[in-house]
Amino acid sequence: MASTVLVTGVTRFLGSSLVGLLAAGGNGPRVIGVDAALPDARARERMGAAEFIRADIRSPLIARVIDEARVDTVVHASTSVTPAAGSQRTLAKEMNVLGTMQLLAACQRSDRVENLIVRSTAAVYGGSPRDPAVLTEDSEPRALPTSGPARDAVDIEGYLRGFIRRRPDVRVAVPRFAEIIGPTVQTPLTRYFSLSPVVPVTFGRDARLQLVHESDAVAVLATLVTGDFAGTVNVAGDGVLTVTQAIHRAGRVPVPVLPNVMGLLGSGLRRLKLSGFSPEQVELLSHGRTLDTTRLREQVGVRLDFTTEEAFADFADRLDHPVRALSSLLGIPRWGARQPNEYPLPTDLPVPGEPSVPTVPRPDRPKLISIDGGLA
Amino acid sequence: MSDHRAGAAASDPGVGSGAPSQEPLAGGWQDTLAGLLAATRRRLTGDYEVDDFGYDPDFHENFVLPPLRLLFERWFRVQVQGIENLPAEGGALVVANHSGTVPMDAAMLTVATRDHHPQQRALRTLAANLAFDLPVVGPLARKAGATLACHPDAERLLGRGELVAVFPEGFKGIGKPYQQRYRLQRFGRGGFVSAALQQRVPIIPVSIVGAEETYPLIASVPQLARLFGLPYFPITPTFPLLGPLGAVPLPSKWIIEFGEPIPTDTYPQDAAEDPMVVFNLTDRVRESIQQTLYRLLVQRGHPFFG
Q1: What does pTM read for this prediction?
Q2: Best exposed site among A117, A365, B100, B123 by fewest CB in 10 Å?
Q3: Which helix (H) or strand (E) holds A267?
C-alpha cells in the first residue's frame, strides 16, 4: 500500500490533477508533487492538499527528495510527447530522456521505492500502414519511430526494461496513453483541432484516431498507483474517429494538402507562433492506430468513462464552432453529444478502504508554461 | 426525426393506415437522391461510426456499393450460386481465387454477400499492404471494410464473428498473364488455414469466373513496376494504349460460386500448430476451387456473352 507518493510534472494537467486526486480525503497517502517550475494558480488549485517540492528531475537532488521523504511510490507523469518547437526540442529531449534516467537512477538507489509508474504513449507503436489494424501491448511495430518525442518514449521504455531487470522487486506499471484530449489539456492535437475555420489534412489519407479523456487518464494513473498491476497497458477510449470525421465534428472544414506541404505548414505556423504541428503529428494524422484495451479492462480493472467519440465531443463542445453557428441558422440539427454534466468524474478509487475523493476540478483552459516549454 | 415524419404523414390526407415511417417515397430516383443527400449531410457533420479497423458502413453503403452494384448487375451480369453455403451468422473464412490485374473480384464478392445473402452480410476483405501504402486507395479500402492481411487482424475479425475474405494467391494470382487464366497459383503459406483453425470457423471455398477477362494482362513491364514500386506494371489491350479509357473493364460474364463449407471444429484444438494438417487443408481448399473453376467455365460458355 502506497504511503508516500511522489509525482513528477505537477505544473501540467495530468500531474497536478493526479496529486489532487490522491491527496484528497485526508487519511490517504502523503502526496508530494515535484516540478522544476512553480505550478501556477490553477495547477496549485488542482493539487489540493498535496505538497509541492521544487526540484529538477535532471539533477541528483531528486534522489535526496526521494530518500528524505521516504517515498515508496514514484509516478513519472512528466514524460511528454509534446513536440516542442525546434529550439525547444533539445530541452524537451533532455527533460524526457535524461530526466527519466536520473529519476530511474534515484529509484534504483532507494531501498524504499516499491512502486514505479511511468507514463508512456501509444506513439511507441509508430505509425505504419504495414502494422496490424489493432495493436496489443505485445505487438512488435514494423517501423519504430526514429525521431522526436515518440523516439524519446521508445528510449524511456528501453531504460525501464533495464531498471526492471536490475530491480525485479519494484512493481513497474507503464500505461501507454492514446492521445489525451479534453476541455482542459492543451496538446499539439487540441491545438490542431482548434485551427479555424479550415484544418489542413494530408491528401489521400484518413487516419484512425483514438483518444483518452483527460479525466480518464488521471483515473487510470490513480488506479495504477493504488492497485497492484505490473506491466505495460494500453489506455484508449473505445472506438475510433477518423481525422476528417473529427474535423467535421468540430465544425471545421478539412482541406487536403500534399504531405510535404503539410510539413511546411506545420513549421510555418509554428514560426508564426499561431499553432503548428510536428512531423510526428503529421505521421500520426496520416496513418493512425487503434489499441486493444482488453488488458486495461481485465487486468487493471478500469472501465473508462469516455469513449473516443465522447471524449472528442467534450473537447469540441468548448471550441468556437463556425459551421455549427451556420447550421443552427439554417435549422440543421446537430449530432448528439452527452451533456457535459452527465459525465461521472472519477469519484472514488477502486481499492476498498481508500477515502472517497472529490471530482477532478476542471477550470477553464489554464495557460501553464512548464520547463520544457510546452503548455500544461 | 420520426416525430417529424409522423407529423408530416398525419397532415397528409392521402396517407392511409400502416406505419407512417415505413411509407415508401414516390419515385425510385427521388428516393435515391434523398438518401444520397442525407448521407452527404452525415459526411459533412461527421455523424457516422467507424470501427477499429476503419470500416465505415455508412460510407460503404451509400458511396461505394451503388456504383459497384451497377457493374455487378449490368456490366458483368454476375450469377451467384451456392450463397446458402455462407452461414447466417458467426465467423467464417471465405477463400477465393484472385485474378484480373485489378482486384475487381474482391469488390464483386463484397456485393455478392451484401445483396444476395439473406442476412446481407458485410464482407471484410484482407488486402496486401500495398493497398494501405497508397494514398486515397488506403483509406478507401479501410472504409470499405478491408484490413491488412496479417494473422492478428484476421483472427480478431473472425473472433468477432465477421465474414472474412482472403485471396491466398495474392499478387501471383492477380498479376498472372492471360495465358495462365483460371490456373490457380501457389496458395501462400497456408496462413489463412491456420487462422481459421485457430478461431474454429468454417472455410468456404469460392470460385470466381469472369474476372480474368476484365483486364487481360498481355505483358508486364518489370522496369516500370520497379519505378513505381508496384508488383507488376500491366499492359492490357486497352492500357496504356487508350490512356484513362484503359480503366474500363471488359464486360465479361461472371459466375461466383460459394462452395460447401469445410468445418474446422472437427480438428483437435492445437491443429493450427500442426503444419501437416495446415498443408493438407490448404491443398483441399485449393483443389476444390480449381475443380469448380473448370466446371464453371464449361457452364459459362462464351467469356463475354455467357
Answers
A1: 0.85
A2: A365
A3: helix A259-271
